[in-house]
Design brief:
Elements: H1 8-22, H2 26-36, H3 41-56, H4 58-68, H5 78-93, H6 99-113, H7 116-132, H8 145-153, H9 157-167, H10 169-179, E1 185-189, H11 196-205, E2 211-212, E3 219-222, H12 226-230, E4 239-241, H13 244-251, E5 260-263, H14 270-278, E6 284-289, H15 292-304, E7 310-314, E8 326-332, H16 347-350, H17 353-370, E9 374-384, H18 393-402, E10 407-410, E11 420-421, E12 424-427, H19 429-432, E13 437-444
Amino acid sequence: MSKKSKSARTLAYEVLFRFEKTLDRLDDLSERILRENELSARERRFFKNLTAGVVRHRLYLDWIGGQLYKGRYKKLLLKFKILLRLALYERIFLTAIPPHATLNEYVNLAKKKVSPLQAKILNGLLRSYLRQKDDLKSPDSIKDPVKRLSIQYSFPEWMIKRWIGFWGEQETEALCAALNQPPDFDVRINTQKINPAKFKKLLLENDVPFSEAEYDPAIIRVKEIQPFLRHHWFEKGYCVIQDESAALVVKQMDLQKGVKVLDMCSAPGGKYINMLQQAPEDVLLVAMDADVERLMKVKANVEHLLLPNAHYIAGDGRALPFKTQFDRILIDAPCSGLGVIRKHPDIKWRRSFEEIIEFSKIQQALLESADPFLKEGGLLVYSTCTIDYFENENVALDFLNKHADKYQLQKPKVPDDSMLNENFMRIHPHKHNMDGGFCAVFQKKA
């Protein structure tokens, strides 16, 4: 079946409309629509910039739109509102695009998607913006710090309230600003396949700009993934995408000769692959996940990299199906994902405080389930990619208090003491320029 041919703007509108209706994952909606439509690499980048950008700055765009529209902004048709957000995002954040191109494209799109009358209204609002943009009120004029930060950086108020409670207004603003930056990509070099110096030379020869990761010489940071796909470097197994914070969790596993290791929630598999690459030959590494489809993707990625000695079990970590015990158990737990908002801005709008409570219950159940299957003297490593205390310190301390007779907390190995919060590893995006996350290392007493 031949693919359809629609513009990047039309596809961005369709994805954003579906997102508002369903609150499905933005990545899933985008991939689905890209499979059905033919776009050049440049157009794909533009499409992804539009969808992620509008979701990232959603409240701020509505704040501007609300000043331009003289009626009740909340009563506007959703279809119209999405077109207005897209057009304003282009004018405010993509200033290299000529204003007339933005106006013409979205007014024509409004004629098709809404009505000729709504297209006229959109045209009027966008022309008003071009005339009045320097006179519009800034969120700085809002006195309430929660409301100001919520609108200025487009985060829900409940999230801002929590963060100000944890860290204060100044720190919260720095965090919001960092999470709103378009993401770079961390690429970890597969040192079993290619020497880091040789791979970096390859990048320079092919004019691929990169920067060194601050703490790990096997990780580089890039703005674009396209050159890696074009040169088939992922296919050749030279590298994988993995954030530096994830590599720090793997370091806590202390993979020694002959140990048996269980990765309890292994999908999407980045940490499992990293362990396979680092482990001595006689280490037994078992990948487990409750989602069979995602576990099969882990298996496919491992096979693609030609990594030996991998084992897979589909099962819920809350009811482990083993008769043996392990020397190391990694629980990279399901969580709210608030530390990776930079890469997935839709998380802002898809999460609620009630979900944080639900995640914490799952996390506690996973830790309790792991306990009988860990050998004496063994390590239980608990990690998340969230920054909320309720899923991090609270869960870890609750487990430790219940099992004080059996476990002691080990200080995580970190390259910088600013990553330690007492005896836990805590990564802050605005301080460490990587995904936010948490890690606790429990040792079972002999």
